[in-house]
Design the sequence.
């Protein structure tokens, strides 16, 4: 079986939360294409297996933060697949998308310390988002958290961001930067400076 | 000097001509004179200031000795001192004079006066050149005048006067402004002012929902006045005409969708029967003008939806003022937008014509002659589903005779065109009922629903709302509307107790025995022509729904050919393909939805790129 996570991390994970670790390991196997089956069908199978055991999905979801605390992510792609795994686990009853409530809970676990605007993002989604969160929106948020600064520098309004992210940025601009551009520029610099010392977690681009 | 030359003529001819470096007597005289003048600058100065003062007092309106001026200036020219000694100080003096005059005049008089003044000043200077100045002074002189009187003040003139003139439709003054501004190369500025004026003036009216009713006629008038000004004041300048077009387009599309709807409704009003006092030609003229507005509209699909809905009602309820006018409008739309835009509308006309034939042959058929119940006449419009607006099916329990009639017609129609499916659209039916009122016999033009309700009173004196609802089976809201039109409108065929404007569940209705009216035939079915709120929202919604499908289709079409495309390029192509205004956010939503439905995916290495999933 493929060992997608740091080996020390995996041993520890098996000890702390065996079910979650196993599921994650299988997930990585399917996604990375190491097993022969078609990934899409493989994932559907895995999903069905998990759902067949009552309470399993919720149990794994509950153990996400434990799993995360022992796993070590050596590079971006490892964290990527873990992040996608969280979406996979958050889906209920074979649904394609996840509810806002579930997404918020999951984000608060998985993006803590990795997305500086996490609190504001969650507040925004809680208040304004009424539809479920699609996989695309889920994945794009991770990309957004990586390429956008605290001050939203690096965001391109003409880019391909999902509408929910565009709306979030607009909301942020409206609330936190109603003043003119020059002072906004100044504050931008000062914020970047303040946070330059922040210790970056592995798997984070900057 | 003439005399001297005369005396010394021989000398001149015989001697001077043959010896080089010697001037003629005449020239020598001039030279000597110049030398003496330049030796005493005081005289030179006095002469020049004298001249300038003379000119200035002429400018101030006093009569002066023009011959003296002319002679003196001629002298300067002969002495070769004109440009150095006179022209320079003269131009300086002119510049100074008009600089002060321009400022002063601009302050104390309004713009039309100022422009008129400037124009006459320029004319005066021009005349001056002809009368006593050297010809080549004209150019710098006029330029100086223009500069001081106009160029320096262009923005002030526009700011202070342009809007006022436009509002008051002062064609001549505007024309003057145009000519003067053209002289000083300020046309660009005038054009901008025009654009600003159009946008500014229209904005308030376009955005004000309360003025929706008059919007179209306002726009028509506004456009007409602009066209008149363009023609008479701005010399039909092409650039100006483009500016007007652009600004107008901007103006109309400031508010989305609603103007298109209003234009369609305006046309409906004009094309509907009962427009007394408009001749065919006048109607044509109006249609043409409205078409100009239509051209500016970006969301033509909204217009189409509403136009179609209204056209359907005009055709089906026989309310069209003139079929010729209707057809001419369709032709106009066709030349404007292509046959794709109008083929459904044309289909509607075809249906109406076909229906006439079907009705005729039905009446002559054996089924009709043998089986039809007597005493009623019916004509049927057979409509092709795709051409007409969609109508929500409305159930109603028809009187027995009508049901029989419908069945026989259906049998007849299907025997002619097998394999088709007929559905009755009860909400569109209309009838003429013969009613025996105690005070006289009347014919009532009513809707099918109204007649179903009225026919209940053939067998009963008094009916409650619930009774009527049960025996007709008409949907609650529609029934209330129907009863309201019969018992609370202008023509009260029924009487309601208790009285009041709204229909209550407990209300009871009796046939109005005292009904009387001056006319024999009375129209009660105006409610059918009227647009209900639901109709309006459903029409708008359908347009939006359609647009979503169109966006989806366009995205899939583009991606199918390109396979892989960046977000920016996709959006650009979409803007080119889609013919209605759309916000980028709405496009994104459709893209996301297509990703969700697995038509597209984001590229794994670059989320800005989409791949088409076959």
Sequence:
């Amino acid at each position: 079986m493929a060992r997608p996570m740091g080996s020390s991390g995996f041993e520890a994970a098996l000890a702390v939360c065996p079910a979650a670790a196993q599921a994650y390991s299988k997930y990585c196997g399917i996604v990375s294409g190491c097993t022969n089956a078609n990934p899409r069908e493989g994932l559907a199978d895995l999903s069905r297996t998990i759902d067949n055991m009552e309470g399993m999905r919720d149990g794994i979801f509950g153990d996400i933060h434990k799993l995360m605390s022992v796993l070590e992510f050596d590079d971006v792609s490892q964290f990527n697949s873990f992040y996608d795994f969280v979406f996979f686990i958050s889906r209920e009853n074979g649904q394609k998308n996840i509810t806002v409530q579930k997404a918020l809970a999951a984000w608060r676990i998985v993006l803590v310390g990795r997305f500086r605007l996490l609190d504001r993002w969650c507040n925004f989604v809680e208040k304004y988002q009424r539809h479920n969160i699609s996989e695309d929106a889920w994945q794009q948020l991770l990309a957004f958290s990586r390429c956008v600064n605290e001050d939203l520098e690096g965001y391109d309004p003409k880019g391909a961001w999902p509408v929910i992210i565009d709306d979030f940025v607009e909301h942020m601009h409206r609330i936190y930067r109603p003043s003119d551009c020059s002072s906004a520029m100044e504050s931008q610099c000062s914020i970047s400076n303040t946070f330059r010392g922040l210790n970056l977690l592995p798997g984070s681009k900057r | 000097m003439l005399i001297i030359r005369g005396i010394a003529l021989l000398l001149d001819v015989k001697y001077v001509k043959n010896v080089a470096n010697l001037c003629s007597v005449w020239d020598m005289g001039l030279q000597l004179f110049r030398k003496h003048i330049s030796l005493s600058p005081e005289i030179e100065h006095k002469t020049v200031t004298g001249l300038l003062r003379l000119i200035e007092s002429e400018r101030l309106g006093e009569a002066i000795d023009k011959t003296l001026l002319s002679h003196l200036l001629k002298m300067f020219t002969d002495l070769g001192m004109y440009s150095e000694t006179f022209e320079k100080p003269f131009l300086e003096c002119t510049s100074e004079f008009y600089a002060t005059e321009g400022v002063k005049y601009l302050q104390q008089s309004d713009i039309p006066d100022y422009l008129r003044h400037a124009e006459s000043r320029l004319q005066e200077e021009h005349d001056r050149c002809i009368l006593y100045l050297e010809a080549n002074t004209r150019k710098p002189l006029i330029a100086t005048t223009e500069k001081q009187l106009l160029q320096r003040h262009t923005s002030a003139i526009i700011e202070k006067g342009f809007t006022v003139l436009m509002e008051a439709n002062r064609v001549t003054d505007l024309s003057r402004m145009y000519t003067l501004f053209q002289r000083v190369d300020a046309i660009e500025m005038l054009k901008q002012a025009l654009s600003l004026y159009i946008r500014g003036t229209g904005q308030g009216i376009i955005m004000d929902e309360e003025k929706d009713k008059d919007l179209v006629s306002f726009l028509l008038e506004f456009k007409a006045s602009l066209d008149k000004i363009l023609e008479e004041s701005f010399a039909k300048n092409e650039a100006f005409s483009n500016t007007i077009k652009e600004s107008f387009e901007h103006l109309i599309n400031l508010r989305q969708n609603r103007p298109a709807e209003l234009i369609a409704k305006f046309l409906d009003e004009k094309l509907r029967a009962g427009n007394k006092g408009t001749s065919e030609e006048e109607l044509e003229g109006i249609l043409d003008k409205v078409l100009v507005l239509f051209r500016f509209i970006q969301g033509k699909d909204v217009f189409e939806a509403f136009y179609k809905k209204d056209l359907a009602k005009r055709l089906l309820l026989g309310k069209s003022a003139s079929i010729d006018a209707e057809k001419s409008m369709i032709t106009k739309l066709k030349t404007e937008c292509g046959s794709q835009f109008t083929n459904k509308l044309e289909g509607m006309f075809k249906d109406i014509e076909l229906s006439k034939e079907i009705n005729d042959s039905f009446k002559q058929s054996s089924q009709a002659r043998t089986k039809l119940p007597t005493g009623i006449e019916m004509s049927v419009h057979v409509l092709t589903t795709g051409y007409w607006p969609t109508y929500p099916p409305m159930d109603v329990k028809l009187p027995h005779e009508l049901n029989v009639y419908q069945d026989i017609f259906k049998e007849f129609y299907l025997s002619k065109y097998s394999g088709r499916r007929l559905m009755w659209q009860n909400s569109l039916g209309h009838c003429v009922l013969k009613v025996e009122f105690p005070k006289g016999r009347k014919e009532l033009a009513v809707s099918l629903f109204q007649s179903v309700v009225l026919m209940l009173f053939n067998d009963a004196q008094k009916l409650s709302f619930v009774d009527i609802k049960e025996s007709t089976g008409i949907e609650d809201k529609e029934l209330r509307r129907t009863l309201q039109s019969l018992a609370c409108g202008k023509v009260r065929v029924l009487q309601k107790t208790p009285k009041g404007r709204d229909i209550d569940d407990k209300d009871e209705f009796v046939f109005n025995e005292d009904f009387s009216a001056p006319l024999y035939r009375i129209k009660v079915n105006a409610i059918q022509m009227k647009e209900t709120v639901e109709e309006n929202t459903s029409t708008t919604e359908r347009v939006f729904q359609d647009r979503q499908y169109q966006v989806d289709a366009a995205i899939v079409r583009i991606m199918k050919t390109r396979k892989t495309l960046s977000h920016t390029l996709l959006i650009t192509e979409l803007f080119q393909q889609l013919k209605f205004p759309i916000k980028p956010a709405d496009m994104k939503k459709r893209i996301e939805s297509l990703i969700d439905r697995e038509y597209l995916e984001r590229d794994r290495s670059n989320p800005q790129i989409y791949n088409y999933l076959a």
User: Anything to note?
Assistant: Chain B has a mean pLDDT of 83. The first strand of chain B starts at residue 430 and ends at 437. Chain B has five domains: 1-39, 209-351, 353-421, 429-529, 534-612.
